[in-house]
Amino acid sequence: QQPMQQKMIEAKVVLLGDSGVGKSSIAQRFIKNIFPDQYDVTIGGAYFQQTISLSPNEAGGLGTQVKLHIWDTGGSEKFRSMIKLYYKDAAAAIICYDVSDEKTFQSVYYWINQMNENASNTGEGANFVMALAGNKCDLDPAQVKIPLETAIEVAKKHNMIHAETSAKSGKGVQELFKKIAEKIVISR
Ligand code: GDP
After folding, report:
1. 39 burial class (0-12, 13-18, 19+ CB within 10 angstroms)?
2. CB proximity list for 32: less than 8 A, separation 6 or greater
3. Of 54, 116, 155, 165, which sits most exposed with the smallest number of CB within 10 A?
4. What gap in Å lies between CA 91 and CA 122, rounded to an integer?
């Protein structure tokens, strides 16, 4: 019997969200499984890659391998000329906010607009994969300003995956990227 061929898919994922919400920390947690005390402020942006293996009974069957190319803006999205490059050929975006900071949740609309204007395949019936990540969910519940239900509602309205993450504890981070990988496989 011939061994079944594993499918390998590559996809670019961009990290969006206000400065300080934890984008770099989420990337570090996902790639290296660490939470750095001191992490160089990303100035020109950062790039990482990580492969996720989906088991045969998950999306795509045959145990698809999904190699994610992750782009962290590090504020470079402020430079108009970088925006196009940043979104070029992206298959997915993760918009991050800080669950303890209302301002960063209000900015989610800004990021959704920027994404819709610059990414291809967004909108009705399109296959651009979008996620909304409420980071710092390790914080004391008293510090949490954005109710989970509110965030879920916004995510639903914009056809986004919703996740609560903590780059600090690691909670929800692997799961988030796995859901994105699955949705990318399904939507291709
Ligand atoms: P970025 O500007 O969006 O890339 O954010 P950073 O990754 O640089 O994180 C900003 C600050 O938030 C840093 O001081 C991090 O240590 C902190 N931080 C990031 N993720 C978490 C988290 O999940 N929980 C907590 N408590 N702090 C976090």
Report:
1. middle
2. none
3. 116
4. 10
What's the Cα-to-Cα distance from 149 to each of 154, 164, 177, rounded to whole Å? 9, 11, 21
The ipTM assigned to this model is: 0.99
The per-residue pLDDT for range 145-161, each reduced to its tens digit, is: 999 999 999 999 999 99
Task: Determine if ligand 1 sits within 6 Å of the CB of residue 135.
Answer: yes
Query: Whole-model pTM?
Result: 0.92
Joined tokens for residue 77? 């999205």
Going from the Cα of 60 to the center of ligand 1, the distance in angstroms, rounded, reads: 33
CA 41 to ligand 1 centroid distance, Å? 11
For ligand 1, is residue 107 a contact (CB within 6 Å)? no
Give the helix/strand (H/E) hosting 27.
Answer: helix 23-32
Residue with tokens 């990021």: 111
